[in-house]
Specification:
This protein has about 525 residues and is an all-alpha fold. It has one domain. α2 runs antiparallel to α3 and α17 packs antiparallel against α18. The two termini are about 20 Å apart.
């Protein structure tokens, strides 16, 4: 099986796991929002935002660097160097994870106060051990992903989601029932995340031990720990700076818009907390389709790296173009569909009514557009990283992040716009980063992949799907009324949209038989679609 096939099979495997995880996640966050309310959900996400910053510092760049170096060594059969990269990465990961967890535990109250949500301290404290456990998991996953084996990562993600669902909801419900404290209940929900990370770490370790022992020896030069660490950090540091910088900007952004809601908009602390909770719920829905971009980027990085290492430049270009096509096929219909069905979707998933529903619908409609911009950024980042230009996405991200903060501050400070200014600022930021990344690829990559042509290949099918979806939704409103079942008002247009999109993709030839043959059961898929 060639590298392009390995990439697509790995991406398909991770995509299936992601679908399962997201379904489980919906069963987790939707009832969680009902148990602890918008205010508690805001505390939950405040803890997650702080956790994300420390996690980015610990794990954003190193897994990518680890995967790339392992892929390089594995592609030429240098198994001793594979072991050396793993051992070096493990030492760095453990140190960073320990520091991150300690910071969250020690400064839980201060971090909550900085986010202008002092009652979120319990959630921050309970989430702290997860930073250390995620570092351990990243080491194990990087070992497998660098060799193109996505199964342990997929299985561990599903296991993690299942335990988070049952433990997190149970603790949130019990604590809320016993104490009535929204802050403590949010902490209980977060504790379920920590438990799930522990279970997933144990599973990955059990998978790693036999794989590590059975790996052949020899195959080439084994570099020193010092040299290996330098190579890891040379790749990881720029990526980490960019990722952590973006997360820091997110924290600053939260501080800015919460401050503007409290001062310029004249809201009380309770009203501002609820408004933030609505925004966080919309952002959770936005993250669901965005998560399907991760399998593509996770799989394509080692695949491109291996092809470049063996100087198969045409193969690398073909893999990059395949990844662009799949990115467009997934992200464009999600962006169009979520923007059009924002109100019925958030009504079903968030349970909102009245003014809260109107606000949530506006926020989610703008976030829907961002799905395509986000997908473009993730894809172009990986292309640049694979070719050794990891610093370029960092510069682009930080420059555009500054613009985002300025836009959010101004727009949210306008009472007529309010919290809706936050997703607008994000849209401008993501659009600028994507454009700058595309310009950089055209400038620095020798064998230039045709990115825009492949990304936008399914644009017409997505637009046609959008027209049909909108028509189906308006027809249901006219026939059944706006007070009809939320499941019907959301489910029927989504089902019609999926069928319409599949038909249009085939008729417009947005997917080829060659693409299908590179996917699991591709021959059957191509026959069904008559390609």
């Amino acid at each position: 099986m060639n590298k392009k096939q390995n990439f697509l099979h790995g991406a398909a495997l991770l995509a299936m796991a992601t679908a399962i995880v997201k379904i489980i996640g919906a069963f987790y966050k939707i009832p969680l929002n009902m148990i602890i309310g918008e205010q508690g959900f805001g505390y939950f996400n405040t803890a997650y935002n702080i956790y994300a910053v420390l996690l980015m510092i610990s794990t954003a760049g190193l897994p990518i660097a680890m995967s790339r170096l392992i892929s390089q060594a594995h592609s030429v059969g240098n198994y001793n160097q594979v072991r050396r990269v793993y051992a070096t990465s493990r030492g760095i990961f453990l140190g960073l994870g320990a520091v991150s967890s300690a910071l969250m535990m020690i400064f839980a109250h201060q971090l909550a106060a900085f986010q202008k949500q002092p009652d979120a301290w319990a959630a921050i404290f309970c989430l702290a051990p997860s930073a250390f456990l995620m570092c351990i998991m990243s080491t194990f996953r990087g070992f497998f992903q660098g060799q193109g084996d996505m199964r342990p990562t997929s299985n561990s993600q599903i296991l993690e989601a299942v335990f988070k669902l049952f433990v997190g909801l149970a603790l949130a419900y019990l604590i809320m029932k016993q104490t009535g404290s929204v802050g403590l209940a949010a902490g209980g929900a977060i504790l379920g995340v920590t438990v799930s990370c522990l279970v997933s770490s144990i599973y990955l370790y059990a998978q790693l031990r036999p794989a590590y022992r059975e790996m052949p020896t020899g195959g080439g030069e084994t570099k020193t720990y010092r040299r290996t660490a330098k190579e890891l950090l040379a790749i990881a540091v720029p990526i980490t700076i960019g990722s952590a910088g973006l997360q820091v900007l997110t924290l600053v952004e939260t501080n800015l818009y919460m401050g503007q809601l409290l001062t310029a908009n004249g809201m009380s602390q309770n009203t501002a907390d609820i408004t933030k909770g609505i925004y966080d719920m919309c952002f959770t829905v936005f993250n669901m389709p965005c998560a399907f971009m991760v399998p593509i980027t996770t799989s394509v990085l080692p695949a491109i790296t291996a092809l470049l290492t063996t100087k198969n430049f045409e193969g690398a270009k073909a893999t990059e173009e395949s990844a662009a096509r799949i990115t467009g096929l997934i992200s464009l219909p999600c962006a169009v569909g979520l923007s059009i069905l924002a109100t019925p979707v958030i009504s079903l998933l968030g349970g909102y009514t009245g003014e809260n529903l109107i606000l949530a619908g506006k926020i989610l409609a703008i976030l829907g557009v961002n799905i395509f911009f986000y997908a473009t950024i993730q894809y172009t980042n990986v292309v640049l990283q694979s070719h050794g230009y990891a610093h370029i996405p960092v510069i682009n991200t930080l420059l555009c992040g500054g613009v985002k903060l300025a836009v959010v501050y101004v727009l949210v400070g306008n009472p007529q716009i309010g919290i809706v200014g936050a997703p607008i600022g994000m849209a401008l930021c993501y659009l600028c980063i994507g454009v700058m990344n595309l310009i950089a690829i055209n400038r620095v990559v020798p064998h230039k992949p045709r990115i825009l042509r492949n990304l936008l290949r399914p644009a017409l099918p997505a637009v046609l799907m959008g027209v049909v979806v909108y028509g189906a939704y308006r027809l249901l409103i006219a026939v059944l009324g706006s007070g009809a079942s939320r499941v019907l008002l959301c489910g029927i247009p989504v089902g019609v949209g999926v069928l319409t999109y599949l038909v249009c993709v085939v008729l417009c030839k947005a997917i080829s038989r060659e693409d299908c043959l590179l996917l699991p059961k591709g021959d059957k898929i191509s026959k069904i679609l008559r390609l």
